[in-house]
């Protein structure tokens, strides 16, 4: 059996090669940018006034002038005006271009406006005050963003400001989710006493939806011939298979053998971890990957979080997420496996503290209902005192 670290390395050696597609800007949030974004003009593109008030020449104020006759008013969106007389002022609005021959803006709050004259009541006027200088944020031609970042609302704003109505992003892989098992029924059905609803398929579909992947949903019965025929069709139409169940030691766990008959090469089967020990991972021609997630709901969930998500991030050129939390309680366990524990997180004196959520095992789906994260306790040491810093997967 291989360790969690080895398993993850192997998974990451089989990244998907994702093509680049163009989407409308307003549909790009959450997607991964696949292009460089360059400032098409200076940021800001002109000396931008930052307060509503009057624009003056600071030198005029410095030699003792307080009352400035108003030459005109300049609104945001109007072309730049020019102060004709250095003893005068121009009324100016936030977002307007600074008028030529002025170099300071005094806010209305510091002025008295009467008879077409603004009298400055402030003690001081500093050259450059309330002016956002052209190019002070970024210069035209500067790289604002490189590819390999998830598009946030702030990025959408930046893309909009450089005029990118269409954005290049990595296309998401085509994913099929397959539940397996003759005990499973559709969610709208009333299960007989020996049956359960196929909740894992929906849990995985929801998780993928959070990644902007609309997966197709399938079910495979515990009959090798039917399983094979269905899988053949599914493989032809998808790049990634997320399978739940049928990977352990049971008499009806046919998945590994059926996959092999379809050209599957196992990269690993079984990981030294709990839950999720029976996980299967491998490849199918050409460049397709299969995640055989163990059927117990918490195992399915944990393996998805710990292997599929890092695989997807790496395929999308995103940097890995690393986080740690401190254990709120001491924990001891055996045998020597990596233990993934659903935890509740809270802030304790400025540190992230994790409290394990009690559960009855990996069949206990309710144990992850309130989980904010998964702690992964390595096989050694087997005793972790309270306060130990432990790797955390944020959910
Ligand atoms: N002799 C051994 N038995 C088992 C081992 C082992 O090492 N030796 N490993 C155990 C572990 S750990 C797990 S996890 C399970 C994994 O089993 P499978 O991946 O083969 O999954 P199934 O047998 O199909 O189902 C297990 C369990 O999960 C329920 N299930 C399956 N799919 C769904 C679904 N879509 N929605 C809800 N629940 C689902 C299924 O009904 C079973 O109760 O094997 C142990 N056994
Ligand atoms: O380890 Mo299994 O994945 O717990 O039920
Ligand atoms: Mg089984």
Automatic annotation (TrEMBL):
GO cellular component: cytosol
Keyword hit for Magnesium: yes
Enzyme Commission number, as recorded: 2.10.1.1
Pfam families listed in its UniProt record: MoCF_biosynth (PF00994), MoeA_C (PF03454), MoeA_N (PF03453)
PROSITE patterns according to UniProt: MOCF_BIOSYNTHESIS_2
Pathway in which this enzyme or protein is active: Cofactor biosynthesis; molybdopterin biosynthesis
SUPFAM superfamilies per record: MoeA C-terminal domain-like (SSF63867), MoeA N-terminal region -like (SSF63882), Molybdenum cofactor biosynthesis proteins (SSF53218)
Keywords for the protein's UniProt record, in alphabetical order: Magnesium, Metal-binding, Molybdenum, Molybdenum cofactor biosynthesis, Transferase
Coiled coil, from the record: none
Superkingdom, natural source: Bacteria
GO process annotations (BP): Mo-molybdopterin cofactor biosynthetic process
Catalysed conversion reaction: adenylyl-molybdopterin + molybdate = Mo-molybdopterin + AMP + H(+)
Record-linked CDD domains: MoeA (cd00887)
GO molecular function: metal ion binding; molybdopterin molybdotransferase activity
Cofactor: Mg(2+)
Family matches, as SMART domains: MoCF_biosynth
MoaB/Mog domain: residues covered: 176-314
InterPro entries tied to this protein: MoaB/Mog-like_dom_sf, MoaB/Mog_dom, MoCF_biosynth_CS, MoeA-like, MoeA_C_domain_IV, MoeA_C_domain_IV_sf, MoeA_linker/N, MoeA_linker/N_sf
Family: Belongs to the MoeA family.
Role description: Catalyzes the insertion of molybdate into adenylated molybdopterin with the concomitant release of AMP.
Name of the protein: Molybdopterin molybdenumtransferase
Native organism: Rufibacter hautae
């Amino acid at each position: 059996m291989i360790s969690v670290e080895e398993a993850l390395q192997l998974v990451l050696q089989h990244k998907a090669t994702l093509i680049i597609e163009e989407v409308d800007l307003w549909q790009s949030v959450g997607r991964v940018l696949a292009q460089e974004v360059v400032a098409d003009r200076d940021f800001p593109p002109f000396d931008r006034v930052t307060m509503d008030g009057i624009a003056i020449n600071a030198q005029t104020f410095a030699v003792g002038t307080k009352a400035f006759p108003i030459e005109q008013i300049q609104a945001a969106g109007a072309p730049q005006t020019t102060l004709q007389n250095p003893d005068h002022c121009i009324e100016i609005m936030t977002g307007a271009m600074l008028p030529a021959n002025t170099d300071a803006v005094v806010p209305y709050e510091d002025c008295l406006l009467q008879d077409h004259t603004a009298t400055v009541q402030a003690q001081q006027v500093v050259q450059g005050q309330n002016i956002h200088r052209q190019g002070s944020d970024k210069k035209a031609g500067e790289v604002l963003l490189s590819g390999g970042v998830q598009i946030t609302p702030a990025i959408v704003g930046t893309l909009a400001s450089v005029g990118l109505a269409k954005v290049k992003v990595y296309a998401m892989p085509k994913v099929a989710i397959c539940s397996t098992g003759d005990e499973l029924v559709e969610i709208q059905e009333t299960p007989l006493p020996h049956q359960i609803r196929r909740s894992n398929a929906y849990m995985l579909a929801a998780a993928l939806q959070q990644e902007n992947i609309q997966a197709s949903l399938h079910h495979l019965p515990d009959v090798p011939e039917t399983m094979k025929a269905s899988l053949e069709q599914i493989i032809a139409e998808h790049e990634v298979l997320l399978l739940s169940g049928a990977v352990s030691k049971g008499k009806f766990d046919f998945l590994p053998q059926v996959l092999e008959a379809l050209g599957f090469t196992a990269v690993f089967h079984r990981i030294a971890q709990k839950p999720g020990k029976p996980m299967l991972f491998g490849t199918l021609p050409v460049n397709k990957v299969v995640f055989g997630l163990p059927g117990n709901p918490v195992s399915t969930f944990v393996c998805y979080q710990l292997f599929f998500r890092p695989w997807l991030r790496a395929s999308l050129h995103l940097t890995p997420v690393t986080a740690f939390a401190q254990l709120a309680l001491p924990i001891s366990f055996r045998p020597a496996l990596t233990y993934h524990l659903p935890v509740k997180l809270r802030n304790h004196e400025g540190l992230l503290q994790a409290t394990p959520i009690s559960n009855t095992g990996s069949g206990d789906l309710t144990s992850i209902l309130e989980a904010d994260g998964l702690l992964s306790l390595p096989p050694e040491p087997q005793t972790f005192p309270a306060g130990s810093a432990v790797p955390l997967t944020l959910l």
